[in-house]
TrEMBL record:
GTP-binding found in the keyword field: yes
InterPro entries noted in UniProt: PRTase-like, PRTase_dom, Upp_B, UPRT, UPRTase/APRTase
Binding site for uracil: 194, 199-201
Name of the protein in question: Uracil phosphoribosyltransferase
Organism: Clostridium facile
């Protein structure tokens, strides 16, 4: 089982504080989600495979390295995961983007998959699943199930706020998936919202409340 990575970088912590503030409006919220995702992407791509190449500088041949292949796929969980895509693509512009649509029933808290569109040859790709919130873990677990069903063997999961309940559930169901979170919060409330959390991530990104 992979140990979850909880980000301790000062820039991430600072931006998370502004993100959590209930007086932060949706324009700034959206920008911050994207910026934090970009900073987290730096850490989550640390182990990408490299290939050695010869590059002709103005002076000589340099033996240097480039990322091997173009196999990375970012998979945002709709809707809120969409807010993280731009930041990820800033660092890895050649990545492909798949989508999984999950909707958590507000009464039962059970997730329902309503959309799944992924690139071909998923068995040869490295996937990073994106969702700002890991609450009960149900949405992430089902989204990763759907991605594995298409043959993918290398999956990471990146969120901004994780609850201990969701972290444990995801680790138990998918122990091979490396989890990255910008913060690990205290608990879930009776509506299965993360406390202290940041509220409803989708509504705050898209201004729907
Ligand atoms: C939110 C969030 C996660 C999910 C987390 O999405 O973006 O996908 O809830 O909860 P869980 O870990 O308990 O499954 P929501 O279903 O509210 O949909 P939205 O992104 O369209 O707002
Ligand atoms: N979904 C959210 O957007 N926020 C939470 O705290 C839990 C689920």
């Amino acid at each position: 089982m992979n140990k979850p990575v909880i980000m301790d970088h000062p820039l991430i912590q600072h931006k998370m504080s502004i993100l959590r503030d209930k007086s932060t409006g949706f324009k700034e919220f959206r920008e911050l989600v994207s910026e934090i995702a970009m900073l987290m992407c730096y850490e989550a791509t640390r182990d990408l495979p490299l290939a050695e190449v010869d590059i002709e500088t103005p002076l000589a041949i340099a033996k240097t390295k480039v990322i091997a292949g173009r196999k990375i796929v970012f998979v945002p969980i709709l809707r809120a995961g969409l807010g993280m895509v731009d930041g990820m693509l800033k660092l890895v512009p050649a990545a492909r983007v798949g989508h999984v649509g999950m909707y958590r029933d507000p009464e039962t808290f059970v997730p329902h998959e309503y959309y799944c569109k992924l690139p071909p040859n998923m068995d040869q790709r490295e996937v990073i699943v994106l969702d700002p919130m890991l609450a009960t873990g149900g949405s992430a677990i089902d989204a990763i199930d759907a991605i594995k069903k298409r043959g993918c063997k290398s999956i990471k999961f990146m969120c901004l706020v994780a609850a201990p309940e969701g972290l444990n559930a995801l680790q138990e169901k998918h122990p091979d998936v490396q989890i990255y979170a910008a913060a690990l919060d205290q608990c879930l409330n009776e509506h299965k919202y993360i406390v202290p959390g940041l509220g409803d991530a989708g509504d705050r990104i898209f201004g729907t409340k």
